[in-house]
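Posting this for the archive.
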Amino acid sequence: MTFPDTADHATPSATANPADISPAHSRSAPATAVADPVALVRRHLIQEPPTGLPVPVIERQHGARIEARDGTVWLDAAGGGFGSGHPAVRAALTEQARRTALSSRILISRPLAGAVTDLAAFCPGPLSVSYLCNSGNEALDSSLKLAKGTHPGRPTVLGIRGESYGTLSHGQSLRSGRPVLPSAPLRPETVPADAPESLLERVDDSVAAVVIAPAAPGRPLERLPRSWWVELRERCHRTGALLVLDERLTGPARLGSDLGTGALGIFPDVLLLGETLGADAVPVGAAVMTAAAYQRVYGGRNPSLHGSTFGANPLSAAAVSAVLGAVNSDQLAVRQREFAVDAARLRDGLADLGDTVRELHADGSLLWVRARDAATAAALAGALARREVLTRPPSGDLLTLLPPLTAERTDTDQILARLADALKDVAAHRPEEATA
């Protein structure tokens, strides 16, 4: 989730709903004439926030700091991106925008050549062929199209139920464990989130692809040992199923290493990267695959078999190279490891909270809190909002905090300090358990 610098926006869950915009409203006075911009934003929310909680109208953002229209300064623990306003990345984007932002596909793009070269150097082992598109969701769909092209007769894609796979139809199907569209080319087969290891035994000759992240909110990196990952790689190789490693949330740098795949001891057939590559400035996603996986489906064929209208444009390609350069030059993986150490120190100091928190864990700067129940998680999100910390809406009893990769240490220290205060506040008030 990104926050443009020059428009009014609400929290990441506050997305405009076109169905709420009537013809009369679309012909109303310009936004500058609106007396209460917060009321305007609230009118277009898909999900109304709890009564009494502040809803910031975003004015601009730099790193983890969000300046709201009312003069308050919020700390972003929701976006999970690179962080806006990085000087070197902003300079690269400005320079590219002066040259050309979009171009015809029949023209050769030097920024695109640079981006795919940089991605091949950044990704390990045989991952060398990149498909750039507009989002991580598109990258996932492209990998599933590759899987279907590899095995046209196989009906199944495997995943872990309840984890996030994005908002397109296949992603929603994997999250819920049931097809969103009855006629979708691949049907989801999922295992429970509390038994991810059982995914291994489901890999057989009916599976076109396995989609799994190295770690996820509620699933620590160490939950699945290296031996499990090595066996998964072997089973996919033996059955021909495409192993898709979903690093849209964990890469680059989020887990404290350049990519999560480095901690697993394996190479996937396809590695997915998402909007972090766009530096919170331009839309980008990428599927980086092995040459063998690419050649089986697209080798020697017209590449327009699968394309993206604006994907791989020069401006987005320039962002990819600039972000990967900053990950290395600024040692952003080190920053995330330092955040994990600070989060562990916070956890160790919260022994007196009773059963308010069942788990608090950080892999790098992927921080999540499993609360006593859904009502407690909602109360914790509210307590953080009152302390001007922006979070994603809880998923049941799970609340995730994802500061930008480039967040300054002073800001991440404040996020953790306010989290500690919010936890103590919630423990003192013990919200009633939510009812269905």
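Confidence is low (pLDDT under 50) at residues 1-29. The chain is about 35% helix and 15% strand.
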